Amino acid sequence: MSQIIRSVSDLKNEIYKVKAANTSIGLVPTMGALHQGHLSLVQMSKKHYDVTVATIFVNPAQFNNKEDLLKYPKTEASDIKMLISMGCDIIFVPTAAEIYGEEPLVKLNFGYLENILEGKHRPGHFNGVGLIVMKFFGLVQPTGAYFGQKDLQQFRVISTLVRDFDLSINLHLAPIIREVSGLAMSSRNLKLSKTDQKKAAAIYASLELAKNQLLSGGKKEVVLKNAINHLSSKSGLKLEYFEIVDAETLKEKTTVNEGDRLALCAAAIIAGVRLIDNIIIEL
Ligand code: PAF
Questions:
Q1: What top-level class would CATH report for the domain 187-277?
Q2: How far is the C-alpha of 73 from the C-alpha of 70, rounded, in Å?
Q3: Which protein residues touch ligand 1 with a CB less than 6 Å away?
Q4: For 272-283, how does the pLDDT look when each residue is reduced to its tens digit (9 = 90+)?
Protein backbone atom coordinates (compact mmCIF):
# COMPACT_ATOMS: atom_id res chain seq x y z
CA MET A 1 0.00 0.00 0.00
CA SER A 2 1.25 3.51 -0.81
CA GLN A 3 2.06 5.87 2.03
CA ILE A 4 1.62 9.60 1.57
CA ILE A 5 4.09 11.50 3.71
CA ARG A 6 4.14 15.26 4.11
CA SER A 7 6.65 15.94 6.85
CA VAL A 8 10.42 15.55 6.89
CA SER A 9 10.34 13.83 10.29
CA ASP A 10 7.76 11.23 9.13
CA LEU A 11 9.86 10.57 6.04
CA LYS A 12 13.01 10.13 8.14
CA ASN A 13 11.20 7.63 10.39
CA GLU A 14 9.92 5.64 7.45
CA ILE A 15 13.30 5.57 5.69
CA TYR A 16 14.92 4.46 8.95
CA LYS A 17 12.59 1.40 8.98
CA VAL A 18 13.20 0.66 5.31
CA LYS A 19 16.99 0.87 5.78
CA ALA A 20 16.86 -1.31 8.90
CA ALA A 21 15.26 -4.02 6.77
CA ASN A 22 18.23 -3.78 4.36
CA THR A 23 15.98 -2.87 1.50
CA SER A 24 17.09 -1.11 -1.69
CA ILE A 25 15.42 2.22 -2.46
CA GLY A 26 14.72 3.80 -5.84
CA LEU A 27 14.04 7.56 -5.83
CA VAL A 28 11.96 9.38 -8.43
CA PRO A 29 12.05 13.13 -7.73
CA THR A 30 9.33 15.10 -9.55
CA MET A 31 7.68 18.51 -9.50
CA GLY A 32 4.28 16.92 -10.05
CA ALA A 33 1.93 17.49 -13.01
CA LEU A 34 2.84 13.92 -13.80
CA HIS A 35 2.78 12.44 -17.29
CA GLN A 36 3.81 9.18 -18.95
CA GLY A 37 7.48 10.22 -18.71
CA HIS A 38 7.35 10.36 -14.91
CA LEU A 39 5.35 7.15 -14.73
CA SER A 40 7.99 5.36 -16.81
CA LEU A 41 10.57 6.37 -14.17
CA VAL A 42 8.40 4.91 -11.41
CA GLN A 43 7.97 1.73 -13.43
CA MET A 44 11.75 1.38 -13.88
CA SER A 45 12.40 2.06 -10.21
CA LYS A 46 9.85 -0.56 -9.15
CA LYS A 47 11.54 -3.09 -11.40
CA HIS A 48 15.05 -2.47 -10.04
CA TYR A 49 14.56 -1.58 -6.37
CA ASP A 50 12.58 -3.03 -3.44
CA VAL A 51 10.99 0.26 -2.38
CA THR A 52 10.17 3.23 -4.63
CA VAL A 53 9.95 6.75 -3.20
CA ALA A 54 8.51 9.49 -5.43
CA THR A 55 8.58 13.13 -4.43
CA ILE A 56 6.14 15.80 -5.57
CA PHE A 57 7.59 19.21 -4.85
CA VAL A 58 7.62 22.34 -7.00
CA ASN A 59 10.99 23.57 -5.84
CA PRO A 60 10.99 27.39 -5.62
CA ALA A 61 14.78 27.48 -5.36
CA GLN A 62 15.24 26.35 -8.96
CA PHE A 63 13.00 29.00 -10.54
CA ASN A 64 14.97 32.04 -11.61
CA ASN A 65 11.71 33.62 -12.77
CA LYS A 66 8.91 34.20 -10.21
CA GLU A 67 6.18 34.22 -12.86
CA ASP A 68 7.39 30.85 -14.16
CA LEU A 69 7.05 29.44 -10.63
CA LEU A 70 3.52 30.84 -10.23
CA LYS A 71 2.47 29.47 -13.62
CA TYR A 72 3.96 26.00 -13.03
CA PRO A 73 1.09 23.46 -13.25
CA LYS A 74 -0.04 21.96 -9.96
CA THR A 75 -2.19 18.81 -10.02
CA GLU A 76 -1.38 17.22 -6.67
CA ALA A 77 -4.55 15.15 -6.17
CA SER A 78 -4.37 13.45 -9.55
CA ASP A 79 -0.57 13.02 -9.22
CA ILE A 80 -1.04 11.15 -5.94
CA LYS A 81 -3.79 9.01 -7.50
CA MET A 82 -1.51 8.09 -10.41
CA LEU A 83 1.39 7.18 -8.12
CA ILE A 84 -0.89 5.04 -5.95
CA SER A 85 -2.20 3.23 -9.01
CA MET A 86 1.42 2.58 -10.08
CA GLY A 87 2.09 0.98 -6.68
CA CYS A 88 4.61 3.63 -5.63
CA ASP A 89 5.52 2.76 -2.02
CA ILE A 90 6.21 6.20 -0.54
CA ILE A 91 4.92 9.48 -1.94
CA PHE A 92 6.60 12.47 -0.31
CA VAL A 93 4.64 15.73 -0.76
CA PRO A 94 6.23 18.41 1.41
CA THR A 95 5.46 22.13 1.50
CA ALA A 96 8.17 24.71 0.78
CA ALA A 97 8.15 25.66 4.49
CA GLU A 98 8.77 22.01 5.43
CA ILE A 99 11.73 21.78 3.06
CA TYR A 100 13.21 25.26 3.41
CA GLY A 101 12.20 26.12 6.99
CA GLU A 102 15.85 26.92 7.45
CA GLU A 103 17.09 28.89 4.46
CA PRO A 104 20.09 26.97 3.05
CA LEU A 105 23.38 28.83 3.33
CA VAL A 106 25.11 26.51 0.92
CA LYS A 107 25.41 27.63 -2.70
CA LEU A 108 26.31 25.13 -5.38
CA ASN A 109 28.22 26.13 -8.47
CA PHE A 110 28.73 23.68 -11.30
CA GLY A 111 31.61 25.42 -13.05
CA TYR A 112 31.41 25.57 -16.85
CA LEU A 113 27.95 23.92 -16.77
CA GLU A 114 26.63 27.21 -15.37
CA ASN A 115 27.67 29.07 -18.53
CA ILE A 116 26.23 26.85 -21.23
CA LEU A 117 22.75 25.89 -22.49
CA GLU A 118 20.23 26.02 -19.59
CA GLY A 119 22.86 27.37 -17.20
CA LYS A 120 23.40 30.40 -19.42
CA HIS A 121 19.67 31.12 -19.76
CA ARG A 122 18.55 30.31 -16.21
CA PRO A 123 21.05 31.80 -13.74
CA GLY A 124 20.84 30.12 -10.33
CA HIS A 125 18.66 27.29 -11.66
CA PHE A 126 21.21 24.53 -11.10
CA ASN A 127 22.00 25.76 -7.59
CA GLY A 128 18.31 25.21 -6.79
CA VAL A 129 18.21 21.82 -8.49
CA GLY A 130 21.43 20.75 -6.73
CA LEU A 131 20.12 21.83 -3.31
CA ILE A 132 16.82 20.00 -3.54
CA VAL A 133 18.33 16.86 -5.03
CA MET A 134 20.99 16.77 -2.29
CA LYS A 135 18.23 17.22 0.31
CA PHE A 136 16.25 14.33 -1.19
CA PHE A 137 19.39 12.19 -1.42
CA GLY A 138 20.05 12.93 2.27
CA LEU A 139 16.47 12.26 3.37
CA VAL A 140 15.73 9.19 1.25
CA GLN A 141 19.25 7.69 1.10
CA PRO A 142 18.37 6.00 -2.19
CA THR A 143 20.27 3.13 -3.76
CA GLY A 144 19.36 4.56 -7.17
CA ALA A 145 17.64 7.63 -8.56
CA TYR A 146 15.83 8.27 -11.86
CA PHE A 147 15.86 11.37 -14.04
CA GLY A 148 14.54 11.99 -17.55
CA GLN A 149 16.77 12.72 -20.53
CA LYS A 150 14.70 15.76 -21.45
CA ASP A 151 16.64 17.57 -18.72
CA LEU A 152 19.98 16.27 -19.93
CA GLN A 153 22.03 19.10 -18.43
CA GLN A 154 20.27 18.57 -15.09
CA PHE A 155 21.41 14.94 -15.26
CA ARG A 156 25.01 16.06 -15.86
CA VAL A 157 24.73 18.44 -12.90
CA ILE A 158 23.42 15.66 -10.64
CA SER A 159 26.13 13.28 -11.92
CA THR A 160 28.65 15.97 -10.90
CA LEU A 161 27.18 16.02 -7.37
CA VAL A 162 27.42 12.24 -7.12
CA ARG A 163 31.00 12.30 -8.43
CA ASP A 164 32.27 15.29 -6.43
CA PHE A 165 30.67 14.20 -3.14
CA ASP A 166 31.42 10.48 -3.66
CA LEU A 167 27.77 9.56 -3.16
CA SER A 168 26.96 5.85 -3.42
CA ILE A 169 23.87 6.33 -5.58
CA ASN A 170 23.27 4.74 -8.98
CA LEU A 171 21.96 7.38 -11.36
CA HIS A 172 19.63 6.29 -14.15
CA LEU A 173 18.93 8.43 -17.21
CA ALA A 174 15.57 7.48 -18.71
CA PRO A 175 14.57 8.04 -22.35
CA ILE A 176 12.28 10.93 -23.31
CA ILE A 177 8.67 9.89 -23.80
CA ARG A 178 7.02 11.73 -26.69
CA GLU A 179 3.55 12.56 -27.90
CA VAL A 180 2.56 11.11 -31.31
CA SER A 181 3.57 14.49 -32.79
CA GLY A 182 7.09 14.04 -31.42
CA LEU A 183 6.65 16.74 -28.77
CA ALA A 184 8.61 15.72 -25.65
CA MET A 185 6.25 15.08 -22.74
CA SER A 186 6.61 17.83 -20.16
CA SER A 187 4.50 19.10 -17.28
CA ARG A 188 4.68 22.49 -18.99
CA ASN A 189 2.74 21.15 -22.01
CA LEU A 190 -0.37 21.37 -19.80
CA LYS A 191 -0.08 25.15 -20.11
CA LEU A 192 -0.31 25.00 -23.92
CA SER A 193 -3.50 24.95 -26.00
CA LYS A 194 -3.86 22.05 -28.45
CA THR A 195 -2.87 24.43 -31.28
CA ASP A 196 0.25 25.55 -29.42
CA GLN A 197 1.14 21.93 -28.65
CA LYS A 198 1.05 21.27 -32.40
CA LYS A 199 3.34 24.27 -32.96
CA ALA A 200 5.68 23.01 -30.25
CA ALA A 201 6.20 19.76 -32.17
CA ALA A 202 8.42 21.85 -34.49
CA ILE A 203 11.16 21.68 -31.84
CA TYR A 204 11.45 17.91 -32.20
CA ALA A 205 11.10 18.18 -35.99
CA SER A 206 14.11 20.52 -36.05
CA LEU A 207 16.14 18.11 -33.89
CA GLU A 208 15.27 15.25 -36.27
CA LEU A 209 16.17 17.41 -39.26
CA ALA A 210 19.57 18.17 -37.76
CA LYS A 211 20.08 14.54 -36.76
CA ASN A 212 19.41 13.27 -40.30
CA GLN A 213 21.65 15.90 -41.88
CA LEU A 214 24.51 15.13 -39.47
CA LEU A 215 24.12 11.39 -39.99
CA SER A 216 24.37 11.90 -43.74
CA GLY A 217 27.62 13.83 -43.39
CA GLY A 218 26.34 17.42 -43.11
CA LYS A 219 28.78 20.05 -41.84
CA LYS A 220 28.01 21.33 -38.37
CA GLU A 221 27.59 25.02 -39.32
CA VAL A 222 25.27 24.17 -42.22
CA VAL A 223 23.17 21.76 -40.15
CA LEU A 224 22.90 24.28 -37.34
CA LYS A 225 21.88 27.06 -39.72
CA ASN A 226 19.19 24.85 -41.31
CA ALA A 227 17.75 23.87 -37.91
CA ILE A 228 17.72 27.46 -36.69
CA ASN A 229 16.10 28.63 -39.95
CA HIS A 230 13.50 25.88 -39.64
CA LEU A 231 12.52 27.01 -36.15
CA SER A 232 12.83 30.74 -36.79
CA SER A 233 10.32 30.44 -39.65
CA LYS A 234 7.59 29.13 -37.30
CA SER A 235 5.14 31.78 -36.22
CA GLY A 236 4.47 31.97 -32.48
CA LEU A 237 7.71 30.19 -31.62
CA LYS A 238 10.65 32.10 -30.17
CA LEU A 239 13.88 30.13 -30.37
CA GLU A 240 16.18 30.57 -27.39
CA TYR A 241 18.96 28.27 -28.51
CA PHE A 242 19.80 25.35 -30.76
CA GLU A 243 23.16 23.77 -30.10
CA ILE A 244 25.21 20.78 -31.12
CA VAL A 245 27.37 19.67 -28.18
CA ASP A 246 29.36 16.72 -26.89
CA ALA A 247 26.82 14.32 -25.35
CA GLU A 248 28.88 13.77 -22.18
CA THR A 249 30.49 17.14 -21.40
CA LEU A 250 27.79 19.21 -23.17
CA LYS A 251 30.58 21.46 -24.43
CA GLU A 252 30.02 22.98 -27.84
CA LYS A 253 31.55 21.08 -30.76
CA THR A 254 33.33 23.26 -33.28
CA THR A 255 33.57 20.41 -35.78
CA VAL A 256 31.88 17.02 -35.78
CA ASN A 257 33.58 13.78 -36.77
CA GLU A 258 32.77 10.12 -37.28
CA GLY A 259 32.44 8.35 -33.92
CA ASP A 260 31.36 11.52 -32.08
CA ARG A 261 28.51 11.17 -29.56
CA LEU A 262 26.53 14.36 -29.81
CA ALA A 263 23.58 15.93 -28.05
CA LEU A 264 21.41 18.22 -30.14
CA CYS A 265 19.73 20.58 -27.68
CA ALA A 266 17.02 23.19 -28.18
CA ALA A 267 14.98 25.59 -26.09
CA ALA A 268 12.08 27.67 -27.35
CA ILE A 269 9.21 29.71 -25.98
CA ILE A 270 5.65 29.15 -27.22
CA ALA A 271 2.74 31.16 -25.81
CA GLY A 272 4.92 32.21 -22.88
CA VAL A 273 5.84 28.59 -22.06
CA ARG A 274 9.51 27.67 -22.17
CA LEU A 275 10.19 24.19 -23.55
CA ILE A 276 13.41 22.22 -23.93
CA ASP A 277 14.23 19.08 -25.85
CA ASN A 278 17.25 17.11 -27.05
CA ILE A 279 18.34 14.02 -28.88
CA ILE A 280 21.58 12.08 -28.57
CA ILE A 281 23.20 10.65 -31.68
CA GLU A 282 26.39 8.85 -32.60
CA LEU A 283 28.06 9.67 -35.93
O1 PAF B 1 13.32 17.45 -13.16
C2 PAF B 1 12.58 17.90 -12.28
O3 PAF B 1 11.36 17.73 -12.28
C4 PAF B 1 13.19 18.72 -11.14
O5 PAF B 1 14.21 19.53 -11.60
C6 PAF B 1 13.67 17.85 -9.96
C7 PAF B 1 14.77 16.90 -10.34
C8 PAF B 1 12.47 17.06 -9.41
C9 PAF B 1 14.18 18.74 -8.83
O10 PAF B 1 13.21 19.64 -8.38
A1: alpha beta
A2: 8
A3: 29-31, 59, 62, 129, 132-133, 151, 154
A4: 999 999 999 999
